[in-house]
Design goal:
Number of strands: 21
Radius of gyration: 28 Å
Helix content: under 10%
Number of domains: 1
Distance between the termini: 54 Å
CATH topology: Porin
CATH class: Mainly Beta
Strand content: over 45%
Length: 435
Amino acid sequence: MKLTQLSLVAAIAVSSAFAGGDIAPVEPAAPAPVAEKSSWEFNGQAVVYYQTIDAYGGSDLFKQGSSVADAGLQLKAVNKDLIGGLGAGITVNGLTTLGLEHSIVSNVMQTANGLKGGWIAEAYLTYGIGNTSLKGGRMTLPTGLSPFAHSENWNVFENTYDAALVVNTDITNTVLVGAWVYANNTNGYNQFHDGAGPAAHNFLKTAVGIHNSPANGMGFIGGEYANMADFGNTNGDKGVFMLTAQNTSIENLTLTGSYYYADDFLGLGDALNIWWLDAKYKFSNVEIALQGGQTIDSALPKDTTAFGAKISGSFSGVNAYLAYSNVDDGTTGVFNVGGQQTPLYTQMIINEGAIRTDNDTFVIGANTQLLGGTFGAGYGTTSGDKSGYDYDEIDVYYTTDLFEGGNILVGYVNMDDNVRADANNVIRIVGRYSF
């Protein structure tokens, strides 16, 4: 007969008593301690980044003098309810050369106060009230909601912004975003950039100074341009205000409008106003998109007007697109405050120096699943409307997941223009492990 724990203890006690022995009471086993689940979420990535160029025929691919490399480590920690509904997040990035600069490469793709270093990429607090969320500190900003001040992920790590952000969803099918951006670092090339070098971070000073000349193209340099630890003021002590509204009330249609205001822009006495509109409509397996906007400031020599169109779709396992953009010869061109790439649909891997201003650009591209990964290719041609500068780019890339969390990207770019006798060839290899 099966005895319960209690009856078994009683039976043993009776037996012991008849034997003349003593028995101590049996204590029930203590439950195993339950570990408290931390409210912090941790993740990160390790990166190895290599790029080589032949500098328009001035060097050879894979030579030490024409190659750059970085190894990076990123650690993230996020707590959505630190105390009383207050959340927090922090991201720390570190870069090292692994000693490759002594034999394999001559420079790095991204810097932080020198060849080796680190910086705090994000450090913010969050709080929610009803349908309104608040975020303040250092953070990433997405292209879709902040086209002229967004974070770019083509380099080792993203650029970020010191900002105050408000997001509200009280209106049905509508997201309202308000931001005040007051500082940023600059995500740039350490091998090539647009001309004479970076100006200060003061909002658009770099754009006004060098982006208005596409003939600058991409010159071969070493340089300070990608110092990610340098967070400079975006518009002096006044900052830049942004308001974005995104609406999806009509099925399959997404409308997004953004407006920027920079008071006393560059100390010129007048305010800079930027507006940008984007519309995307999906039907079946096809998407049609339109974009356009202006930068307006009476203190600048000329306003900038730009527009673009794109059609994309999936057919028999192939994703293809055709895009067009036009930017007039305005002073600022189309730009990103904290990086290199534009929000234009015709943005390719490295063509931003040609498409920012004074041009018509056509791009065609496609990708498909192949050999366990994604294979893609694109071709773009740019014609300068008044400058006479013409530029062509061919992109070919392959990316695949080698194992869980591990990805490798291999890309090839051919850059050709009517200024240099030879084309420039670029090979980029990036390995990332996310954990």
